[in-house]
Amino acid sequence: ERKQLHRLRREPSRTLDGVDIRLWANAESREDVTGAHALGAAGVGLYRTEFLFLQRSELPDEEEQFRAYRDVVLGMTGRAVTIRTMDIGADKADRTGLALTNEPNPALGLRGVRLSLARIDVFRTQLRAMLRASGYGPLRVLVPMVSGREEVLAVAALLRDVARELRSEGHEIAEHVPLGAMIEVPAAAIALPTFIGSVDFISVGTNDLTQYLLAADRGNDALGELYSPLHPAMLLLLRNVIRTARARGKPVAVCGEMAGDAALTPLLLALGLEEFSLHPATLLEVRRAIRAQRLDALRAAAPALLRCRDRDAIDRWLRARAAPA
Ligand code: PEP
Ligand code: MG
Q1: What's the pLDDT tens digit per position in 70-97?
Q2: In this structure, which residue's CA is closest to atom 4 in ligand 1?
Q3: How far is the CA of 229 from the centre of ligand 1 (A)?
Q4: Among the atoms of ligand 1, which is closest to the Cα of residue 48?
Q5: Which helix (H) or strand (E) holds 23?
Q6: Where in or outside the cell is it found (predicted)?
Q7: Lesser CB count within 10 Å: N end or C end of the chain?
C-alpha cells in the first residue's frame, strides 16, 4: 500500500471529473521543503517562522531571517512560498522577552499580528527580511490572528513602506508581494467581506478557528470531542468564507490540520475548497482521496452536509463518501 501511495508522487491532484486541486505544503524545516518539492506540492502554503524566535534569548536579526526565508524560496525552485509573519504570544515558550508574560488568557491576548503591530521595530525587521527574500523567487506574506480590516490595512501600509525603503537602498525585490490574511478568528471569518478587497489571498487556520469558534482550548484533552471542526457551525462558517473569497476571485486555502486529514477531504471539497495546505507526510494520502472523488457529485451533496444537525450526522455523510483506501 505504501508503494501504491508512493506512485502518486508524480500524478496530478485531480478529481475524477478533471478538476485540479492545489496541494500546498506546510513546512518548517529543510526536510519539509525537500519533501514538499519531491512530492509535487504546488508550493509552500504555510511557513511558520516562530522557530526563529523561540528557544533562544536574543531576537534573530534581519540577516539571519533573510537567509532562512531565501533558502526556502530557493528550495522550491520557482514555486510560490508563503511565509507567515511571527505568531508569537504568551502561549509559546518565548525567552526573547518579546511576548508578555503572565497574561491571564494567552490565547486571547497579545499574539500574532497584535504583537507584531505592538512591536513595529521587530515586525519591520521581519518584513524587510521577507521582502529581500522575494528577490529570489515568488514569495507571499501571510499574517496570523487577523481580527479585522484595521490590522490588514496597517500591515499593508507597513509592507509598502518597507518595500520603498529597500528599493531606495538598492535591494532588488519582487514587483508585487501578495499579502494574505489567516482566517482563524471568528470575527474575521464573519466580517471577511469588509476586508477581502484589501488582501490578495486568504488561508483558513482551522486549528485556531475551531478553538475560538467553539470556545474549546485546542490543547486541553479534557474537552475530548468538543474540540473538533466537525460541528455544524464550523461547516457553515467555512462554506461562507470559501464562498466570499471565490466570489471576489481571491484564492482561499485551508492550512489547519483538517486539510491533511484524508478522511475529511470529501467534506472540504464539498464546501468548495480547491486549495489545501498540509504537512508533506499527509500529501499523498490527500492526493489519493482527491483522485477518488467526483467534484460535481460532492458539490451536489453539499446541501445535505450543511443540513447535518450534529457530529453523528456529519460522520454519516462522510462515511457515505469515503473512498476505499
Ligand atoms: C491554525 O491555527 O490552523 C494554523 C494553521 O496555525 P497554527 O496551528 O500555527 O496556530
Ligand atoms: Mg493558528
Answers
A1: 999 999 999 999 999 999 987 776 778 7
A2: 205
A3: 13
A4: 9
A5: strand 22-27
A6: Cytoplasm
A7: N
Name beta bridge partners: 181. 143, 202
Atom 6 of ligand 1: nearest residue by CA position: 205
CA angle, 188 as apex, 232 and 54 as ends, to 5°?
Answer: 105
Q: What is the CA radius of gyration of the chain?
A: 20
Contact residues for 66 (Cβ-Cβ < 8 A; gap 6+): 128, 129, 132, 133
The predicted-structure confidence for 31-73, as pLDDT tens digits, reads as follows 999 999 999 999 999 999 999 998 888 999 999 999 999 999 9
ipTM of model: 0.99
d(CA 122, CA 284): 38
Query: How many CB atoms within 10 Å of residue 114?
Result: 16
Work out which ligand 1 atom sits closest to the CA atom of 255: 5
Q: If you measure from the C-alpha of residue 147 to the centroid of ligand 1, how many angstroms do you get, rounded to a whole number?
A: 15
Nearest to 198 by CA among 138, 122, 143: 143
